[in-house]
Amino acid sequence: MPVPKGSTLDPERTRATILETATAVLYERGLDGIGVAELCTRIGVSKETLYRHFGTKDGLVEAMLEARSERLTHWLARAVAAAGDDPRDQLAAVFDALQCWYDDPAFRGCAMLNAAAQHHVEAVRAITARHLDRYLELLTGIADRAGAPHPQLLGRQLLMLVEGATVVAAHQDRVGAGEHARQAALTLLSAASRTGLAARLP
User: Per residue in 37-89, pLDDT tens?
Assistant: First the structure.
């Protein structure tokens, strides 16, 4: 909930509350879709409080993107872990989780990619690159466990399906976007697994 002006909450709690509330507003409106004055009104803090905790609006945006990236990555990692030991089930779980996200009425696409498209600044581009690296690490791990001969390459191909499905769901049609990408991903995984198995046969 918003932090009232003049609140005596401890600094860490105040910062966390501002970040949580601002994340929803900035994701809904876009980084350039709301000015500092309106943002502060929506959050329920003064400009001074905002600047004290984040320096600038850009500082708030960067903190929001970092926190959101970490939260999304952990969410997908938990989905993979809950799917069991079969890499096919793990990969399916990634796209099943994404489809649940796409089906949420509040879905507005990937916040990191949205930010990189709106803000052509190095700090935001770096956060987006790190976010994609986290996804790549998760997907490459699945490819490696599946016995793919080139797990890094397959991981990158799977990343393209993840981000492509997210863009399609945000800008074209969210219905079945994750499910269709899952089918393509599992086809890629099966083909790579067969290639890896054949290479290991005497």
Answer: 888 888 888 888 888 898 888 898 899 999 999 999 999 999 999 999 999 99
Task: Outline where DSSP puts E strands in the chain.
Answer: none
**Contact in structure between 113 and 189 (CB atoms under 8 Å):** no
What's the CA gap between 172 and 24, in Å, rounded?
22
Residues 6+ apart with CB under 8 A from 199: 149
The pair of three-digit structure tokens given for residue 9, joined into one six-digit string: 């909450």
> What whole-number distance in Å separates Cα of residue 83 and Cα of residue 106?
26
Amino acid identity, residue 30? G
Distance of alpha carbon 98 from its chain centroid, rounded?
10
Choose among 195, 188, 192: nearest CA to 92. Answer: 188
pTM over 0.90: no
The H or E element spanning position 150 is none
| Phi and psi, residue 199, nearest 5° | -70, -25
DSSP 100-138: HHHHSTT--S-HHHHHHHH---HHHHHHHHHHHHHHHHH
